[in-house]
Amino acid sequence: MTLTGLLTFGAVYGVAVASPGPGVAAVLARVLARGLRGAPAFIAGFLVGDLVWFALAATALHALAQTFAVLFIVIRYAGAAYLLYLAWKLWTAPTAARDIAAEARTERPLRLFLGALSLTLGNPKVIFFFMALLPMVVDLGTLSLAGFLEIAAAITVILSAVLGGYALLAGFGRRFITSPRAIRIVNRGTGAVMAGAAVTIATR
User: Fold this and answer.
1) For residue 161, which of 1, 10, 20 has the smallest C-alpha distance?
2) pLDDT of 9-58, one tens digit each?
3) CA gap 17, 136 in Å, rounded
4) Within 10 Å of residue 142's Cβ, how many Cβ atoms?
5) Residue-number span of the structural domain to which 166 is assigned
6) What separation in angstroms does the CA of 173 have from each of 83, 95, 183, 189?
7) Among residues 138, 134, 140, 115, which one has the least CA distance to residue 197?
8) How many domains is the chain partitioned into structurally?
């Protein structure tokens, strides 16, 4: 793959990842409410989900994905249900810093990873990018193994950097949220954002 083609893909993909959507909302909401603990596992779920969709698009297995459309509908609703679960947890979360830290420590990285993965696999924004926009940027018919690996590496770097940046930004902002009243407002506000993202995924 040419350097120009790779840079073009990187620019388009970077804009797609950075633009507001359920994934960005989930990362911001979770870090604002719980801090950076568990964020790497959460972001890894989004990354693997994007790589799965890229692999399906690049290997012409999108036809297989269409064959199993019902499965992906189930995954989409599973992702929406997970966001609703997170929204409920945030809405009812404790406001004491000690209790928040204790609750964050009980979260399992694997559960965070699987939740983000299901969210990504059912996210209409991600599906649209890889199944509709990607073929307009990359000639998938002539994509070599080296080109495939180059794009996969670009996806890994760009998504990790963008979502990691959002997480660090939210983590920085969270340092100024100290009073129980402010924590309650943030928890319920981010919970509402999570619920809105869940509705977006479920209804598109």
Assistant:
1) 10
2) 899 899 889 887 778 888 887 887 777 888 899 999 999 999 998 988 88
3) 17
4) 8
5) 3-203
6) 22, 16, 12, 14
7) 115
8) 1
Write down the pTM of the prediction: 0.74
Specify the pLDDT at position 176. Answer: 66
Closest to 17 (Cα-Cα) out of 145, 166, 162, 149: 162
Q: Is the pLDDT of residue 103 over 60?
A: no
Distance CA 144, CA 148 (A): 6
61-to-53, 55, 56, 116, 183 alpha-carbon distances in Å:
9, 8, 5, 22, 45
Structure tokens at 67: 């064959």
- The token duo for 73 is 């509908």
Of 2-11, 159-168, 189-198, give the lowest mean pLDDT range: 189-198
Centre a 10 Å sphere on the Cβ of residue 43 and count the other Cβ atoms it contains. 22
Do 56 and 194 meet the contact criterion of CB atoms below 8 Å apart? no
Radius of gyration of the chain (CA): 18
Winning range, highest mean pLDDT, from 58-72, 103-117, 155-169, 187-201: 155-169
Residues in the chain: 204
- State residue 143 phi and psi, 5-degree precision: -70, 125
Confidence (pLDDT) at 187:
67
